[in-house]
């Protein structure tokens, strides 16, 4: 005796929508306020490290655009936002520390006044307009 399991049409629609979400590379995440209109980078994709910095104080990320940093942590800097009038100066980077391995590889913004640059590899001399994708949360 053979039994057939029938699934509701809503299940199939849900499965289709879930599949599209994984297959569609154009998902934008959650839109957030832009922090700047442009950024300084070492290359067009902002993929080269501009410098290495050391955190001089702790910073707790207020939202998903930012990263947490701990005093003494090493940070690889990939871009420097060009400040808007009345706004703060933020850089983007990734932390590295043996104590905070769970944060390694996560790129986000942090206040530049909380770090000291230790070594500049390549000046961030290329000014590139920011896009909404620079500030979306995924």
UniProtKB/TrEMBL annotation:
Pfam family, one: SH3_2
Top-level lineage group: Eukaryota
Listed InterPro entries: OTOR, Otoraplin_SH3, SH3-like_dom_sf, SH3_domain
The UniProt record lists the keyword Signal: yes
Keyword match Signal: yes
Position of the signal peptide: 1-29
Keywords of the record: SH3 domain, Signal
Domain SH3: 48-120
SUPFAM superfamilies found in the cross-reference section: SH3-domain
GO terms (BP aspect): cartilage condensation
Name of the protein this chain belongs to: SH3 domain-containing protein
Organismal lineage: Eukaryota, Metazoa, Chordata, Craniata, Vertebrata
